[in-house]
Fold these 2 entries.
Entry 1:
Amino acid sequence: MASGEIDLAKFTVVLPTYNEVENISKIVEELFRLYPGISISVVDDGSKDGTADAVLALQKKHDRLTLMQRAPLEKGLTASLMEGISSVKTDYYIVMDADFQHPPASVVDLMSKVSEGADLVVGVRINREPLTISRRIASTGAHKLASSYLWLCRKQRSLDLMSGFFGGRTNVSRKVILEYGNKFEKKGFKVLFDLLKHAPRDIHLAEAQFVFGVRAGGESKLNSDIILSVMKQCGLAGKMLGTSIQLLVISKMARVIGLLILVAIFAIVIVMGTLPHSPTP
Ligand SMILES: Nc1nc2c(ncn2[C@@H]2O[C@H](COP(=O)(O)OP(=O)(O)OP(=O)(O)O)[C@@H](O)[C@H]2O)c(=O)[nH]1
Ligand SMILES: [Mg+2]
């Protein structure tokens, strides 16, 4: 389906942002140029680099551009997208990163699937080169974990459960968020996994392949905690395991405590080593 056959006015592109001043104006202009008639909703999490100001300036030119400025204490990608998708006013929505890793020219492929009747469409990456080796391994591991969990729950799966490029019928996703939003991992990065976990089994799921790009400007906000974050999304057992591992391995506090214990053991060993030996009888 070409973009000319799609009712663009029925779509809102949701762009989550945190410190994306280098990219936001370019991506907004590019999306409006490629898809005249769409709406764009930027969900900003208190960026400190002037992202929100850039959007406010763009609003003077584009009346279909909205900005949601979130409370700093509720920062989180999943929380932002839950809020962003829930407040979409059009029939359909597309979520994509603001850093050009999801090519604006590929948005039409997702729009086509939704226009053809899909409830949810996932953009599937056909290449992984832009990711570092460690991110690639973490992403594959997290995908396999999420896929196994969905299989156990007998829910529908996609080939790229870690994708941040997806879309669908607004009322279908909104209903899932309203009913099950309290169970979402709000500080997590993978809202698509949460949506699939709680969506009805018979949801019409579609996929569209795309070429994953390199970040155009600015810095990545994500880290390699992704597997632990996804683990915490896998039911109560996964949450407990993920949180325990995070406390033990990742938490700065646990590392500091671990280091102090090591220093104490080392000091005891040294002190014992310098103690005078009792004379042998
Ligand atoms: N609202 C909001 N947006 C966020 C948050 N963290 C990241 N983002 C945005 O979400 C999108 C994806 O984040 P990235 O940092 O690009 O994550 P990534 O694509 O996995 O990492 P890279 O491959 O290194 O770019 C970008 O548009 C970010 O600006 C957040 O906490 N809140
Ligand atoms: Mg990115």
Entry 2:
Amino acid sequence: MRLKDRVAIITGAGSGMGRADSLLFAREGAKVVVNDINQKNIDGVVKEIEGAGGEALGYKADVTKMDEVEAMVEETVKRYGKVDILVSNAGWDELRPFLHTDRGFWDKILNLNLLGHMNCVKAVLPHMLKNKYGKIVTIGSDAGRLGNPMEAPYAAAKGGVIAFTKTIAREFGRANITANCVCPGITETPLAEQMISAIPEKEKALKMMETVRKVTPMGRLAKPEDVAGAVIFFASDDSSFVTGQVISVSGGLSTP
Ligand SMILES: NC(=O)c1ccc[n+]([C@@H]2O[C@H](COP(=O)([O-])OP(=O)(O)OC[C@H]3O[C@@H](n4cnc5c(N)ncnc54)[C@H](O)[C@@H]3O)[C@@H](O)[C@H]2O)c1
């Protein structure tokens, strides 16, 4: 078991990639704090984990609110005594041409997709420092490495997540805390479906998805489980001397 007796907080764990990470981590022996803003989905994932014989604690908190994040971390430490792993995964976007975005939309996107990660990392670090052990995995996006039309504020936030993660890696390496960033390409999750169905020109969006599928060397889009495989590498001691790194999970669509 790769995560035996480890305690992991996974944000945005009620759906998509966070759910897949939670199920995999629990199978690998971790006690998983399943965080989301959707209580019904939290309960569903906790039930799945417990049904498979794993250990989980559901915790509803909004990662954009520091007081809620801090309360979640305190509850985790109270329940399990420590926090070994943070998978900072919660995120959201809506495809919009840049000129159709405004300051209100930028604030919403940056609050969740950049500052939400900073809240979570700041809240777990004191506990990781105390134990001289920590594995921080942020979920970025290939949009943040490469840029992507109709995702300017989101790409800016995810680019920020990459730079933030590298900085945490440099600042906390001597405390035996690693920080790495997983950047998925298009992944078949409820978010991707939502983003496509929100576009007025659906035909165009579906055609674009088909083109991405065709030009991807591995000939398909990612599944949440594909991403979870990269996340658990960075969350486990398999990556004991790997920090400040960014990995693209995109079937070879983008190469460094
Ligand atoms: N799906 C893709 O194509 C894709 C590609 C690249 C990167 N990503 C990133 O991957 C991560 C996971 O996305 P997904 O596709 O699994 O999405 P998803 O919508 O399936 O899951 C995201 C979860 O985050 C939760 N969430 C949203 N706001 C929250 C908040 N403020 N606090 C706590 N939880 C919150 C949602 O309720 C949802 O359950 C996100 O960071 C996303 O930006 C997704």
